[in-house]
Design a protein that fits this description.
By secondary structure, this protein is mainly alpha-helical. It is built from eight helices and no strands.
Length: 226
């Protein structure tokens, strides 16, 4: 077996373990929390009083207008100067959650806005409250519109978690960096890490396509009933 192939085989379990223990949890937690934050932000920007909407608009403006890496550095390296000390993983989780929340809020806001005004009127006409109309009528229809871009956001997040290496989170990419520091084979190890990210993204892309087809059938069913 060639030396480069042996090195890849020896390092693969370590890289996969780092991905399982750190990359996957960081991705899932950040996306779930960020999606909840994005939904709250979108609803606030659409329906909250102007001062409240302005606060959320400012949050989205700041996050979308600054690099994710800078945001992570501010949280992990900057906040200690204010007496706020965070471990690497919670700092990364906060940073990714805020980032996903800002971007997903724009997706959700556009999806909710795409639902025809008549759907609100129909829900109110049968006695639904605002919250019932949102849960039972508006969000199910908005979800079908939001699924493709949100899926893309999730896939991008998988790759973006590699930035957590810059704040010492021992996820997949930083683990590759540590192996490089002892093996002095950066090309081989970084290609191996890239292939693992590629495999994860490919699996998620297949799942995304299936999810989109399912929601497309659901949308066709709703249109047929209408």
């Amino acid at each position: 077996m060639p030396d480069w192939l042996r090195l890849m085989a020896d390092s693969l379990p370590t890289l996969l373990w780092a991905g399982l223990v750190f990359t996957v949890p960081l991705t899932l937690l950040s996306f779930v929390l960020g999606l909840a934050l994005g939904l709250a932000t979108a609803v606030a920007r659409l329906f909250a009083p102007a001062p409240v909407a302005a606060v959320f608009r400012f949050y989205v403006w700041v996050i979308r207008g600054t690099p994710l890496l800078v945001q992570l550095f501010v949280i992990f390296y900057g906040l200690p100067s204010l007496g706020i000390l965070l471990d690497a993983f919670p700092a990364a989780l906060i940073g990714f959650t805020l980032n996903v929340g800002a971007y997903s809020s724009e997706i959700v806001r556009a999806a909710i806005s795409s639902v025809a005004r008549g759907q609100w009127e129909a829900a109110y006409s049968i006695g639904m409250s605002w919250s019932q109309a949102m849960r039972r009528t508006i969000l199910p229809q908005a979800t079908r519109v939001a699924v493709p871009p949100l899926s893309n956001t999730f896939i991008s997040l998988v790759k973006d978690t590699s930035l957590a290496a810059a704040i010492t989170v021992p996820e997949l990419f930083q683990t590759a960096q540590r192996i490089v520091a002892t093996s002095y084979e950066p090309l081989i190890l970084y290609i191996e890490a890239a292939l693992i990210y590629l495999a994860m993204s490919s699996v998620l892309s297949v799942l995304q396509a299936r999810l989109e087809r399912r929601f497309a059938r659901y949308g066709g069913f709703l249109e047929a009933r209408a």
